[in-house]
Structure of 2-oxoglutarate dehydrogenase E1 component:
Amino acid sequence: MSVSLEQSSFLFGQNAGFIAELYARFLKDPASVDPSWNGFFKELDDDARAVLDELRGASWTPAEVNGFATEDAAPALTGPGNGAMVAHTQMIYGSPSHENLRQATLDSIRALMLIRVYRVRGHMNAHFDPLELEKREPHPELDPASYGFGPGDMDRPIFLNYSLGLETATLRQILDILQKTYCGHIGVEFMHIQDAEEKAWIQERIEGGRNHTDFTVNGKRAILERLTAAESFEKFLQLKYTGTKRFGLEGGESMIPALEQILKRGHQLGLKEVVLGMAHRGRLNVLANFVGKPFTAIFSEFQGNPSTPDEVQGSGDVKYHLGTSSDRDFNGATVHLSLTANPSHLEWANPVVVGKVRAKQQQRGDLEREQVMGILLHGDAAFAGQGIVAETLGLSELRGYRTGGTVHFVINNQIGFTTNPQYSRSGVYCTDMAKMVQAPIFHVNGDDPEAVVHVSRIAIEFRQKFKRDVVIDMVCYRRHGHNEGDEPAFTQPLMYKVIRSHPTTRDLYARQLVQENVITQAEADQVTSDFMKKLEADFEAATSYKVNKADWLEGKWAGLTTAPGEEDRRGNTAVPMDLLKEIGNKLCQVPNGFGINAKIARQLEAKKKSIETGEGLDWATAEALAFGTLLLEGNSVRLSGQDSGRGTFSHRHAVVYDQATEEKYIALQHLHPDQATFEVHDSPLSEAAVVGFEYGYSLADPQTLTLWEAQFGDFANTAQTIIDQFISSGESKWLRMSGLVLLLPHGYEGQGPEHSSARVERFLQMSAEDNWQIVNCTTPANYYHALRRQMRRNFRKPLVVMTPKSLLRHKLAVSSLADMAEGSSFHRVLPDALPDLAPAEQVRRVVICTGKVYYDLFQEREARKLTDVAILRLEQMYPFPRTALTKELAKYPNADVVWCQEEPENQGGWFFVDRRIEDCLSATGNKARRPRYVGRPPAASPATGLLKRHNKEQAKLVDDALTVS
C-alpha cells in the first residue's frame, strides 16, 4: 500500500522520525511512497542520502509504522504529543500543510548535510597556520549556496533534532557555530573512522565545547610558565652558544605545555609510565623542560664534557641524539618518563619506542594497556616521507604488537630542511597516512597554546578510552634554519621575511593574558626574568659539573654488568639430562582429542623417539629445548617473524592447529604451571618496523629472550637502518645493552640471488668493540647453547645467527642430548671429528669453513676417503676466537691452510677472517703463514639463479678445497 501525503501528514504528527521511515520504505520499494515523495527522494544527492541514512539509525526513528490514518485525523496535528517536525512546521509556516511540511523537511535535510560536510571538510577552511602563508580558497562544499540556501534563508529557523545540541536554529546561527567549531584554530579529521562509538565520542567532545578552550586563571598561568621556560631556554642557548647546532624548538614552543597536559591528564586516567621517541627538533627542550634532565648537565655537554662517567667506555653521541629517564611527581604519585636515544635517521626510533612500551606493559601485567604509553614526536616532512612511520602505524592493531595506542605529536614547521611541502608529499596533510589505521587527527595552530593544550587533552582521553592511536598536527614554524648555523632565506626568502617580523608564541600569549586581566605585564616580565636567572645559575654550575654515574644498569637491568674482555664467555648453559627429557616429552604431546595434522603427528613421533634414545636431535628440537629450559628457569621467550609459528621451512611447528576447528596449541606454553611466558607471533610483512619493535622490546626487558626471524636471511636488508644505527652501535653510542637475537636463514642451495645469502659480510664489517656476536653453527647442540648463553651470562649482547635451510633436515646435522646436558657448552671452534684422521703431523691441508658448506666438504672427503685433510669449523665468527683457533691450527704444523666459503670472494667471511687467520698462524710456528681463499669468484649478485650453474660452482669449490697439489 502506498503512503499518501494525507496519511503522511498524520504520521509526521505522531513522530518526527517519520521522514526517516518514509525514506526506508522508498529504499525498499520506491513505488510504496507517494509520487511526490518518490521524486523528492530521487533528486537527493549522495550526501543527502547519507544524512537520511543517519536519521534512519536515530533513536527516535520508529521501528515500523503499523497503520495509516486519513485526513480526518488532521485536526489533531496541533494537539499534545504531536511530532517535533510538525510542531516546528506549524510554528514557522502557520500551518503544517503538506507543502510546508516538505519545505521544512528539505530545510532540515539541507542543514544536516551542511553540518555533516563541516564535520568532514571543515578543517580545510580552518586557520591553523600561524604564518598564514597559504591563502586557502574557501571550500565550495562549505558554502550554504551549495545546498540551495540563499541570502533570504539566513534567519529562518530550521529543525535540527538536536544536531549541534540544538532542536532548532537559524542558518546564520548554524554557520556561526560550525565556523567556530570546525574552522577556527583547530581542524579535526575524524569522519573517516568506521567505529561509530569512537566517531560519536570525538564529535561530542569537539561540538560539546564548541572548541572554546575554557581554562582557569591558574591553568592559563601554567601555560605561560611552560611557554616561558621553553622560549627562554632556547634564547639562552642561542646567546651562550651562538650558531651551535641544537635544532631548537623556537616557533613550536606550545608543544611543551601540550606534553605537560598529556602527562597530567594521562596520570588522572591511570597512566604510570611514558616512553618517548622524537627526532632532533626541540629534543633538548623536551629533555630539560619536560623529562627533567638538569640544565647543568645539558650546559656541561655543550661545553664538550662527556655525558657519562670517565670510566664508562663508548663513542658517545651528539647531545641532540641522547636519551634519559626521570620520575615526575603528580600529587604524590610518580609517572616514569624515558626518552629513547635515536640516530639522525629521524623516525626510525618509532618502532623501538612501541616495542619498549609493549615490554614494559608485559612487565607490569598491564593487560588493559592503560598504565604504559608511547608518545612519538614527529617532524612533518619525516612523518610523510619516512616509510617506517607507516610500518609502525601498521603494527598498532596487531595482536602481537599492539600497545593500546600511541599519541603522535607532529611538530609541523611546514618545511623539510629546505624542501617545501608541495615537493615532499602528495597528500594535503603530512598526517594523511594515519588515516590507514583510522586514527583521529587534530590539526592545530601552534600560536594558540590553549588550543594546542585543548586538543592534547582530547587526544590522551581518546587514547585511554579507546586504546587507539591518535595524532596531533601542530602547525607552527622554525625561527631559524634547519639548524642554527643555516641560512634559511637561501631557499625560503618569503617565509623567513614573515618569520623575522612574527612575534613569538610566548609574546602573543602574554599579551592575550594581559588583555584578559589574568596577569599584568610586570608579572609576565618577572616570569621571564626569574627563569633566566635560574639558567644563569645553572650555567655557572656547569663548569664544575661531573657525571657521577651512568643510568644504563638500573631498574630491570640491575644485577647485570658490562661484558668481560676475555674471549671465552660460555656461560652455564648445560641442563640436567632428566630435565631435558621431561621437557622433550612434553614438546611431543597434544591435548586429547586434538585433531593434529597427520604429517606433524609423524614429526612428533620422530621427535619423541629421538628424545627417548637421546640421539638424532634435529635443529628444531634443539631450539625448542633451549626455549623450554629457559622458560622453566624463569626467562620469558618472545619469537616473531613472518612465518615463525610454523617456520618458513615447516620445521618448527611451535604452533599446531586442530584440522577441524583451527584451534591453536602451543606446547611451549604448557610445560609447567609456574613457567615463564612464551610468545610466538607471525609478523606482518615488515622487516624494518618489526626488527625495530623487537629491538625496543629487548632494551626494556633483559630477562626475556627476544628473537626476530627473517623469512630468508637476505630479507634483513630492508631493516638495515635498524641494524646499522641501533643494534650494532647502540651500546657504544648510548650505553644501551640489548640481547636481541636475529635468526637469518643462510646457505647456498641453488635458490637464486635473493634466497641464498644473509649478507654475513655486512655484519662482519660492522663488528668492532665487542658490539655483538655472529655465529654460523653447524650442529643443533651448538645452536642450543648459543641461545641459552644469551640469558645465562651477566651481560647482554645482540646475537646474529646464520641459521640453516637444508641442514634443518640433514641426516648428519643432528646432535645428542648428551651434547646439551651436564658438562656441555658452546664451542666457538669445532675440531675435526674424523676418527681415522692421519696423525696431525701428516695432515697436509687444513680447511677452515663455517656453516653449511662443512657438510658438503665432509661428505666429499668421505667419498674420496681422504685422511690427510682436516676440516675446522668456525662456529663463531665474531668475536673472533683467536685463542681457540690458534690452538687447533698448532696441531697441524706441516699443513697448508685454506679458507673455504660458498659466497663470492667479495662477500662472505673472507675479507674479515684472512688477516685474523694469518695472525693465528703467526703464533703457531706452522709451515703455513697465510690462508688461501677457495670459493666463488667475486660477483655483484650474491648467487646465480641457474641451478645447473650453482651445482657446478659448488662442486668446483669443494674440489678445490680438498685437492692438495
The domain at 217-546 is CATH 3.40.50.970 (Rossmann fold).
